[in-house]
Amino acid sequence: MxxxxxxxxxxxxxxxxxxxxxxxxxxxxxIGNFALxxxxxxxxxxxxxxxxxGSGGAASRRVILRGATIVAIALSVAFGAERLAAxxxxxxxxxxxxxxxxxxxxxxxxxxxxxxxxxxxxxxxxDPRVRRTRLLLERIGQEGxxxxxxxxxxxxxxxxxxxxxxxxxxxxxxxxxxFETVERxxxxxxxxxxxxxxxxxxxxxxxxxxxxEGDFSRTDDIGFAGLxxxxxxxxxxxxSVISATMRDVPETSDLLLVVAPQRRLRDQAxxxxxxxxDRGGALVALLEPGGDSGLDAVLERxxxxxxxxxxxxxxxxxxxxxxxxxxxxxASYWDHPVARGLNGNRMTYFRGARSFRLRKPHVDDELSKxxxxxxxxxxxxxxxxxxxxSGRFERGERAAGYQPIVVAGRYSRGEHETRIVAFGDSxxxxxxxxxxxxxxxxxxxxIHWAAENESxxxxxxxxxxxxxxxxxxxxxxxxxxxxxxxxxxxxxxxAGAIVWMRRRNA
Length: 506
Hints:
There is one protein chain. By secondary structure, the protein is α/β, with parallel strands linked by helices. The protein has 3 domains: 106 residues, no CATH class; 94 residues, Glutaredoxin (3-Layer(aba) Sandwich), CATH 3.40.30; 271 residues, Class I glutamine amidotransferase (GATase) domain (Rossmann fold, 3-Layer(aba) Sandwich). Helices cover 37% and strands 18% of the residues. It starts with a helix and ends with a helix.
């Protein structure tokens, strides 16, 4: 019984530590295993002490001495390995997606810095988060022109006030007279700060407003202030034009971004968009099922037609969705720069999407699907389904198949090249959903491609979203995976170990 309790304790503590390093925190799974492991080891120790009482013979001493020697050797080897790793800078990163290995996006941001960056970690000595942040900074510092230091909050009050440091575990990045303060340092937030410091110019983006388009100043769930901030981080200057009074797209514009007009654009605005595209402009259009925004005619001229229907995809639906199939998680991607790096493990999420049909206007035009639904999806012409709050859909006689949700086109017209990316949904880029799964990467990479900044296409390191969004963001999905998915192998390992010990002692 003592041996079984000890083995149970060791396995439970192993899985507790493993879940902590895998998910960067103690969830209920880790806490439960830690409590179970500690209790089991305490009970095993108590049982051993009761047996140890009175065992003072020579044979007992030899057994105890042999066991103590083995423990001492194991501790010595472990200590020596730790010291060797510390001196040689050997590191093993076993976290999901290599949390302590700088991503390609971070390495690119480091290479593009115009000079050395002073990085200061302000901390409270009792803050347990500091160790992880320090390791992350040191690892990133090995790849670029960063000078990393640490300072205790209470000892540097003047700098704390200057850099507006509000709490422990805050990082300040300083380049000449500019600085960025990062209150929740992850590789994602540090990457964004580095990107802002590099001061690269991505171009000028013009967004339309006045006909119910997405509001880039609105900070609630349905606004697009998050996308505006992300574009600024990537180096773009974002300006707006009232579509009702627009006679021409500003000549300074490199790209026109139109987000789901609720009313039809006036003919004057549509003509201005046509002229802008004919002279080599770029368009990224985020549409919604139903309604006539006026953009449909513009897109059809470039071979992008959109049926007046909504995509229903029960195969890729959220398991907890009220209306199964209406909000698909897309995992099918074509080989196109906009979808670079996205696959069945790096997915995107849409909320009520329309589909597209492609047909080249000219033989040399390049039209491509970018993101598709699963092969089980179909188109529902009854747009009233968008108002449903519960229920399931029946396909009936409707044809099922892959439904393009995002498409892209490149068109050579004389000396000019026009690029267009069309999305069948706009909600995926709203504040509520922008940082869900890989939505942010998809929309930013589409804009980079359309603006001919393909070198900036990348998968960005993730921030931990707060509050939790739905579908569950990447980090929270991992919490669930390691919290429930590890439970099964742990139980199997415990059961197998107990059976082995019983047979061994039989």
